[in-house]
Automatic annotation (TrEMBL):
Organism of origin: Cordyceps confragosa (Lecanicillium lecanii)
Principal subcellular localization: endoplasmic reticulum
One Gene Ontology molecular-function label: ergosterol O-acyltransferase activity
Swiss-Prot/TrEMBL GO biological process terms: ergosterol metabolic process
Cell location: Endoplasmic reticulum membrane
PANTHER family reported for this sequence: STEROL O-ACYLTRANSFERASE, STEROL O-ACYLTRANSFERASE 2-RELATED
Membrane topology type: Multi-pass membrane protein
Keyword Ribonucleoprotein: no
Annotated function: Sterol O-acyltransferase that catalyzes the formation of stery esters.
Source organism superkingdom: Eukaryota
Keywords assigned: Acyltransferase, Endoplasmic reticulum, Membrane, Transferase, Transmembrane, Transmembrane helix
Chain ranges passing through the membrane: 70-88, 124-147, 258-277
Protein name, as recorded: Diacylglycerol O-acyltransferase
GO cellular component: endoplasmic reticulum membrane
């Protein structure tokens, strides 16, 4: 009887500890909101407006909106759009239009395959720097100005939307640093959820696979073409990362960073040419 009473007492203690743990889990880190009081339309709308993909019961906030910063970011968005328009109309669209016309003119000739490759190579070379500039401007618009403006409007305290991805030495590092909101979402809901069942390597492969599908859907929506070029390019990053982490290459940060930038500049213009022309 004494043993039974002791067992019941231990069970009650475990239940109490579990209740305390759940209370901490279901209460925001700031301690102001507890589940289910967060289940409101206002909380849902707040989550939609906050520049994050990972839901929390409550987010840290800045004390006030910096109106000067907000206005400067809005102005910067329109300035970048102006530069994007000039770059696209003067240096990208004419090159693509000329390449399309040349490809159409040789479509029925015997030398079509070799001529097609030559036109593609020439088009990619003309697009190298204009498309790299386009990528940098789009990156600035989204991650520095639009997300920054949304953070200012909602007083969202975490403004770290990207890190120094330009110093990346492999594509794994780039994927972690260039888009922190998406990386945090994939890490929480894909990588961490699959790692107990597949291990670290399997979880990484699954995360890259789902991310590659997402990028392919974006490219298909923009170009109205489902080709799979972006999907293949992103999945190829995994064996490249393995190669860069071998003992012959690992630790050579300058060399790996040069290779990263070379593949970035080449890859962007190549993706543009392939999706538009083929």
């Amino acid at each position: 009887a004494a043993a039974t009473a002791q067992h019941e007492c231990d069970s009650d203690d475990e239940i109490e500890l579990l209740r305390d743990a759940l209370a901490r889990e279901l209460t925001s880190p700031l301690g102001h909101v507890t589940y289910p009081r967060n289940l409101t339309w206002a909380n849902y709308l707040d989550f939609l407006l906050c520049p994050t993909l990972c839901y929390e019961i409550e987010y840290p906030r800045k004390p006030a909106i910096n109106w000067t910063s907000l206005v400067s970011k809005i102005v910067a968005v329109f300035g970048c759009i102006f530069l994007l328009t000039i770059t696209s109309e003067d240096f990208i669209l004419p090159v693509l239009a000329d390449a399309e016309a040349r490809l159409a003119s040789i479509a029925t000739t015997a030398a079509a395959p070799s001529e097609t490759l030559l036109i593609l190579a020439e088009t990619i070379s003309w697009l190298l720097f204009p498309f790299m500039l386009t990528f940098l401007l789009v990156f600035l618009v989204i991650f520095e100005y639009v997300l920054g403006a949304m953070a200012e409007i909602t007083r969202f305290a975490d403004r770290r939307f990207y890190s120094d991805w330009w110093n990346s030495t492999d594509w794994m590092e780039f994927s972690r640093e260039w888009n922190i909101p998406v990386h945090a979402f994939l890490r929480r809901h894909v990588y961490s959820a699959s790692r107990p069942f597949t291990g670290r390597s399997g979880a990484t492969a699954i995360t890259f696979f789902i991310s590659a599908i997402g990028h392919e859907i974006v490219m298909a929506s923009i170009t109205k073409k489902l080709r799979g070029y972006g999907f293949v390019a992103q999945m190829l990053q995994l064996p490249i990362v393995v190669l860069q982490r071998t003992r012959w290459v690992r630790g050579r940060r300058t060399l790996n960073n040069v290779f990263f930038w070379w593949s970035m500049i080449m890859g962007l213009s190549m993706m543009c040419a392939l999706y538009v022309l083929l």
